[in-house]
TrEMBL record:
This is 8-oxo-dGTP diphosphatase. PANTHER family: 8-OXO-DGTP DIPHOSPHATASE, NUDIX HYDROLASE FAMILY PROTEIN. InterPro entries: MutT-like, MutY_C, Nudix_hydrolase, NUDIX_hydrolase-like_dom_sf, NUDIX_hydrolase_CS, NUDIX_hydrolase_dom. Belongs to the Nudix hydrolase family.
Length: 137
């Protein structure tokens, strides 16, 4: 019997970048899958949204940060098979945003130099994204 095809989960994520070229990562909350791992802010793309709208909404909800679709630039994407789904995750970068990020729906936030991202345990889907940020910054 053939294995069932896993559903594709579309998640949109964003690397906020500060004036020093550091990237913001967020620690996943307790009680959720992959709790405690560090990830790029973002979330599932809802049925009525574009990925860019998802990023703008999630930055507001998770961090209290405001930005605009025009301030998002696509960098790369993750494509990774988890147990229950296949994750497809465009990663945007954003250098222009308003407000100081605060950890509203996450455990903690950290501004990290791209070369130091490997010091923070991330979901397996995220590891291939790191070289793109190192190249960019
Ligand atoms: N936001 C974000 N999600 C990531 C990253 N890497 C990665 O594998 N994911 C996965 C974790 C989750 O399975 C999914 C994002 O879903 P989510 O954060 O909106 O939802 P969740 O798992 O917290 O579950 P829910 O309670 O909100 O339904 O993508 C990343 O860098 N950022």
């Amino acid at each position: 019997m053939e294995a069932a095809v896993k559903p594709i989960l579309l998640v949109a994520a964003c690397a906020l970048i500060d004036a020093d070229g550091r990237v913001l990562i967020a620690q996943r909350p307790e009680g959720k899958a992959m709790a405690g791992l560090w990830e790029f802010p973002g979330g599932k793309v809802e049925a009525d949204e574009t990925p860019e709208e998802t990023v703008v909404r999630e930055l507001h909800e998770e961090l209290g940060v405001e930005t605009k679709i025009a301030c998002l630039a696509p960098l790369t994407f993750a494509s990774h098979t988890y147990t229950d789904f296949h994750l497809l995750m465009p990663l945007y970068v954003c250098r222009r945003f308003w407000g100081v990020p605060e950890p509203r729906e996450v455990q903690a936030l950290k501004w990290v130099r791209p070369q130091r991202l490997r010091d923070y345990p991330m979901p397996p889907a995220d590891e291939p994204l790191i070289p793109f940020l190192i190249d960019l910054l």
